[in-house]
Known about the structure:
The protein has 83 residues and is α+β, with helices and mostly antiparallel strands. The chain has one domain (2-81). 28% of the residues lie in helices and 10% in strands. It is built from two helices and two strands, in the order E-H-E-H. Strands 1-2 form a two-stranded parallel ribbon. Strand 1 (2-5), helix 1 and strand 2 (40-43) form a beta-alpha-beta unit. The chain is globular, with a radius of gyration of 13 Å. It starts with a strand and ends with a helix. Residues 1-24 are annotated as: Disordered.
Amino acid sequence: MTISGNPDGHAWATRSRPSLDPSPKKPLIARLAFEDPTPGIYLARPCQHIKTAGCHPRLWTSHRLSEDVVSSLGQALDQIKLR
Length: 83
């Protein structure tokens, strides 16, 4: 199984202002993952492609590599492994 994921996406609107939506502008990795006929998953970074109450710019800027964010990605993978 292939696991694909995006890097930071569109984390910053300017050099000093976070974007309101961290989703990649041109989601090449997602497109390639969806076009791949072999089994696989696409794991987006927090708040990419979805907006929830818990989404705060720090999750895709200053805290993007924090223990909480990395742990949440690991938990998502654990959930997928159970299926």
